[in-house]
Amino acid sequence: MRWVWDANRGSPVRENATISLGSDGNFVLAEANGTIVWQTNTANKGVVGLDTLPNGNIVLYDSTGRYVWQSFDHPTDTLLVGQFLRATGGPTRLVSRLSEAEPLNGPYSFVMEQRHWAMYYQTKNTQKPMMYYKSSEFGNGKGALAFLGFYSAPENDGNYAFELGFVYNMSKSDSSGTSILSRPKYNTTYSMLRVDADGNLRIYTYDENVDWGAWEVTYVLLDRSEDAYAHASECKLPKRCGSLGVCEDFQCVACPTPKGLLGWSKGCAPPTLPPCNGGANVDYYKVDGVEHFTSEYNEGSGPVSLAQCKDKCSKDCKCLGLFYRAESSKCLVVPELGGLVKVANASHVGYIKISK
To answer: I need a labelling partner for 135 at 20 to 30 A (CA). Which of 190, 232, 274, 354 fits?
Structure first.
């Protein structure tokens, strides 16, 4: 069995807590002393019952069978088959857990945007989350996404049993359709799409025809293989190599230090910086042929000189390093280093801030 939804993420209850459907139709989770931790706010709205549907949706319904409240409208980190994100009147994102064991909001999110979906990493050093993956655009070039849903359906051409993917509709446009993520060779009705604690996007499918290992990963966004459905390398995960490391061919291959590239270990970390005083007491060391995990979607500002780029980072107390492209003179300053992606272009270089 696997958890697919959190009612009260970040506020776990203690012993003897209760969950109850009151006579007024409100569904309430409360501590033993009566303190309400979470509720559906459906009092006096005609609720007559609660049910858990075969698709995993928890619903409160009225005497006509209409859903007054449903868990599908309040996703946490998971979409079940038939569940949607909506541009208006509903959630537009999924947010990871802090870890598999901790029911707190993590730093990663899946966000439905104007014409695409994207993956973001939120660091404590910046208010604006950093994009590390963006999908191709949906539709015919008009309108914006009205909804994006997770679907499972029989495959038409007979080569596979089922297909998994997104179904979408565009507002102010006639465009709608599907985007296939995976084609497993068995019934995939029991599947879920999840933003995992490591920042990867995966689909898990339950195969009821096997006796053990029934949960299979049927799609991975950032993968280690060259599979046709692997959109990008696992090296693009913000924390693939912890707080610092050079990632190449899906592996953490080096720890960049002022003395050069050393063997990577989990202890590899950015240098401890002095108190910020406008950049007078900081310097940099160079890492050749690397890009930041956000570089594919953010080249930075420019054109500027390397000296100007360093000056910008030096004066920014939250900047831990910069990435510079010599051919375009573009400067990207970053509040988080994480994985440095190895690239063939030696003119793409990183500079890590250090105490002078």
So the answer is: 190
